[in-house]
Amino acid sequence: MNDLTLLRLFVQVSDQGSFSAVARTTHTTPSAVSRQIARLEADLGTRLLQRTTRQQVLTEAGRVYLRHARQIIEDVETARREVSRLSNAPSGVLRVTAEADLALTLLTPILPEFLESYPDLRIQLHTSADMEDLIGRGIDVAIRVGHLDESSLVAKRLVMSRSLLVASPDFLKRNGSPQHPEDLSGMSCLSFRVETDLVTWRFKSGDEVASVTVAVRTQASSLVFLKEAVKSGLGIAMLPIWIVRNDLDSGELVPVLSGFPLEPSATPISAVYPSGRNLASKVRVFIDFLSAKMVSSSDMR
């Protein structure tokens, strides 16, 4: 029995007050416990416990030794935790893919804090909107917006992102502000990634859901482009609030038809990664960090 085990045994005897009680919890015999305590006392050259027929009482030397024994055990456990934390610290290259707009607007501002927290990690960011072969391309995690198809990949929802209709004050001054969703049918509208010149937007009005088909004069696969186009007075667009928050705060953009919430009310943003029982620590800490940042951010809702 090593010295640390003897220390633990001595603390147990001191806490429980008898060899028999300790023997039951350690699945041994009272005589075996007594022999180990006697060995410890012999090594120290002093008696630690005053033995009686019913219990073991600490001597003055025993009380002093107990105080130090507790501190030693606590220090050893602290050292063990620290070493374990270091040996399991995330390190290496974290390969991430995300749509360019999301990477630029959401990831870029928070990556410095993440990398400062994990100095042994490096990030490779691939901007892509496709659900590519994550395993084949060595991608650790993909950040995706929208509802995802069933697959062998694991998807962890990070946050629900709300969208709204926005326009520039100048556009509304020139064209008037729509008062009802149906008013949009005669106005210039912009849309994100559609295949036709017509797009249907759905609105919640009380318990009813109204669908309005609008003519799309400008469409693009970039949310950042659409935002800038709306700011220039080109028309009305549906955009996620996280990409227009600063422009709403500055007054360069204003909400349109805020009394008619869009349906669905929000879209999920998810972290997608290959399935497996053991999630790499670098992936786990990145997903946890993103989730905490996005949930706490008012820019998402």
Provide a descriptive summary of the structure in words.
The chain has 301 residues and is α/β, with parallel strands linked by helices. The protein has three domains: 3-87, Arc Repressor Mutant, subunit A, CATH 1.10.10.10; 92-160 and 267-300, 3-Layer(aba) Sandwich (D-Maltodextrin-Binding Protein, domain 2); 162-266, D-Maltodextrin-Binding Protein, domain 2, CATH 3.40.190.290. Helices cover 42% and strands 27% of the residues. The protein contains nine helices and twelve strands. It has helices at 3-16, 19-26, 30-44, 60-87, 100-117, 169-175, 223-231, 241-250, 281-296, and strands spanning 49-51, 56-58, 92-98, 121-127, 141-145, 153-167, 189-192, 198-205, 208-220, 236-240, 254-256, 266-274. The strands form two sheets. Strands 3, 4, 5, 6, 7, 8, 9, 10, 11 and 12 form a ten-stranded mixed beta sheet that branches. Strands 1-2 form a two-stranded antiparallel ribbon. A hairpin with a 4-residue loop joins strand 1 and strand 2 (56-58). Helix 2 crosses helix 3 (30-44). The relative contact order is 0.13.
